[in-house]
Amino acid sequence: MEHTSHEILLGEDDRHLDFRVSILMDEVHELKYVTISTVVFFHNRLGRLYFFVIERFHKAIVSAMLKNMIRQITSST
pTM for the complete prediction? Predict the structure, then answer.
């Protein structure tokens, strides 16, 4: 894990694929924004097959994680 004051970078390397997730936080005119980006590097066919299956659920998983983070942040302030 790496981080700056506005970004957290997470990831994992595997035999079949590597992935990185960036969570970027920004504020413009007192509005707070969060941008989540995912990058996947495939090493072989098994990595492509795995992500082909996961890709269908990826957006829902990321969305649920973001909503959970927001709930935790707002309840602790």
Answer: 0.71
Block mean pLDDT (10 aa), the chain, length 77? 89 94 92 90 96 90 83 78
Alpha helices per DSSP H over the chain: 45-76
**16 three-class SS:** coil
Per-residue DSSP letter, 30: T
Question: What's the chain's length in residues?
Answer: 77
22 vs 66: CA distance, rounded Å: 12
Q: How many structural domains is the chain composed of?
A: 1
Q: Which domain holds residue 52?
A: 2-76
